[in-house]
Design brief:
Helix 1 crosses helix 10, helix 5 runs parallel beside helix 6 and helix 9 packs parallel to helix 10. The protein starts with 16 loop residues before the first strand and ends with a helix. With about 375 residues, it is of the alpha/beta class. The protein has one domain: Arginase, Chain A (3-Layer(aba) Sandwich), CATH 3.40.800. It contains 14 helices and 8 strands. Strands 2-1-3-8-7-4-5-6 form an 8-stranded parallel beta sheet, with helices on both faces. The longest helix has 19 residues. About 35% of the residues lie in helices and about 10% in strands. Bound molecules: zinc ion (ZN).
């Protein structure tokens, strides 16, 4: 068998890499939390069943050290998360100050290990991307994390670390594109005054965290595209072509970080956008075709079927695999075994169990979407 993972010729760009860890197989967040479902471990299992990892493509994620974490996070906050995990408790003052041990950002066994692994994975992904290739780290994308507190299910902010790693390597312009259904507020605010980073976020309007309005440009290096309920494939294609790509080309980035949350998909229980997974894959591919030095992160996504299908299919597409029309029975059986408190069993269409690619959800580009490029480009 010929292994072409090391092939760097122009006609054969290097194969993409996948950063993962078995730490994501451990139960986390506690029962009934929206993130207690199977997500990234399911992606790895499905991609293994489909033989979508060539030798050397799967890289094990290291953990970030406390010294690394403190390049962005407040040392007292880092110490508080470590201590809470070690003791298994959070007192009221710590909870109020750092927002850990709450319903939103619960304390659970292994929290510190898991959160530091997500950061370590994004640092590794950025280091590998610097070599000129696409690196997929679906456990990343904790874009709401703040320097001094947890927010929106995010303890640390791994996309910030992917960006910092690229900047520390000497890059002077890095583009961050956030396709999650929620505004990438933590990343925007981290780099709002840094001219080396442009953040562009496409997210559902009037949804938590309620920031990222159309005229919000941070301190100059942010652009926001808030979109209405029912956002469809044609509307995403339109915004990528007429807003995201022109903004990127004008900025001229040397590398790219994408947060590709799976929560803008039809069927996600925490948002009301209606994309097919094929539209998200296409958006990522369009960006990568222009800027191949890219870290692709995961993000939100609260329906285990749509999350696992979306990110498995994305990895397949990044690696040039053919997406099967119908899943092998082994994969279908795996899909059948997924569970969610937020989705009724009767609401699971058979296509979620037997296919990876959604049918396209084309539709009209509504006037509200059509006017957005003009408002962010000038
Ligand atoms: Zn989200």
């Amino acid at each position: 068998m010929v292994c072409n993972a090391e092939n760097n010729s122009k006609n054969n760009p290097p194969k993409p890499l996948f950063v993962g860890s078995d730490v994501y197989r451990q139960a986390a967040f506690g029962a009934h939390h929206p993130l207690s479902i199977i997500r990234v471990s399911g992606v790895v299992d499905v991609c293994r069943m489909l033989n979508w990892f060539e030798p050397g493509q799967y890289r094990d994620s290291p953990r970030a050290s406390e010294a690394e974490l403190c390049k962005f996070h407040d040392p007292e906050y880092v110490a508080a998360v470590r201590a809470a995990d070690a003791s298994g408790r959070v007192d009221r003052a710590v909870r109020d100050r750092f927002r850990i041990g709450t319903m939103e950002n619960p304390l659970f066994p292994g929290l510190f290990r898991r959160a530091t692994t997500a950061v370590g994975g994004s640092i590794l992904a950025a280091e590998l991307a610097l070599q000129g290739q696409v690196v997929f780290h679906p456990s990343g994308g904790t874009h709401h994390g703040r320097a001094d507190r947890a927010s929106g299910f995010c303890y640390f902010n791994d996309p910030v670390f992917a960006l910092l790693t690229l900047l520390e390597a000497g890059l002077e312009r890095v583009l961050y594109v956030d396709l999650d259904a929620h505004h990438g507020d933590g990343v925007q605010d981290a780099f709002s005054e840094d001219e080396r980073v442009l953040t562009v976020s496409v997210h559902e309007e009037k949804r938590w965290p309620y920031s990222g309005l159309i005229d919000d440009r941070g301190a100059g290096s942010a652009r926001n595209l808030p979109v209405p309920r029912g956002f469809n494939d044609s509307e995403l294609d339109f915004l990528v072509e007429h807003a995201v790509m022109p903004l990127g080309r004008a900025f001229g980035p040397e590398a790219l970080v994408i947060t590709c949350g799976a929560d803008p998909l039809e069927g996600d229980p925490l948002s009301r956008l209606s994309l097919s997974n094929v539209a998200l894959w296409r958006a990522v591919e369009t960006l990568i075709a222009q800027w191949p030095r890219t870290v692709v992160l995961g993000g939100g996504g609260y329906n285990p079927w749509t999350v696992v299908r979306c990110w498995s299919g994305l990895w397949g597409r990044l690696g040039g695999q053919r997406i099967p029309q119908r899943l092998p029975s082994e994969v279908s059986a795996f899909m059948q075994g997924l569970e969610s408190d937020l989705i009724d069993e009767d609401e699971v269409p058979s296509a979620w169990l037997t296919t990876l690619a959604d049918p396209p959800n084309r539709g009209p580009v509504r006037p509200q979407v059509e006017r957005l490029p003009g408002l962010v480009l000038h």
